[in-house]
Amino acid sequence: MAVEGGMKCVKFLVFIFNFIFWVCGVALVAIGIYAQLALDKALAVSSASAAGSPVAILVLGIVIFFISFFGCCGAWKESYCMVTTFAVLLSIIFLVEVAAAIAGYVFKDKARSVLEEGLWDAMHKYGEDQPVTEAVDEIQRDFQCCGANNYTDWSRIERFRANDTVPRSCCRSNATSCNVHPTPETVYEKGCLQKIEAWMKKNILIVAAVALGIAFFEILGIIFACCLMKGIRSGYEVM
Asked: Which positions are tagged coiled coil (predicted)?
């Protein structure tokens, strides 16, 4: 009876941890959507790989959501096959997350260069490509920035250098000629690269905290799933 009670406890813990995974999956989906909406225009002027980052978080959240649901059913029904499948899938997800974290750390400097390259490319297309023009304007207004590194970057674009102007989205006010002969008093002085980086560093702590929490519960989930698998296979005779 004590052994059976112990296995019921393990079963309950596996079910609870899977419910927590389900909540974590929902949290990742929310973070992915938030990042996509918040950086929508910035990602539009960047590379396809950078634009896929929020989507990757969103997909990971959905995968965890369904795996946790699968694990809950396996624990509730005491299905050896379902619990085993859950443990294997969860282990794979954990390894993928570790690999992604390592890759993110190794290529963190590359992300900055990709974003800067995307901003410069968008600046050269400004006024010629309507979607890109709108994206640049929205970035500069939302982040209160001008150019890639600072407002003088626009002087390297021929059409703006000729008239000594910058886009009106750089203006601090709605004055008619605020973008003519720009100065730090009339336009945003800091570049968008610096402002976007600051925003990402501020919010990456949230992502890191969620990722660490998920990783911790994944390890516990795998351990308890293995214990439940052992109990189911032995018919409650072996812990």
From this structure: none
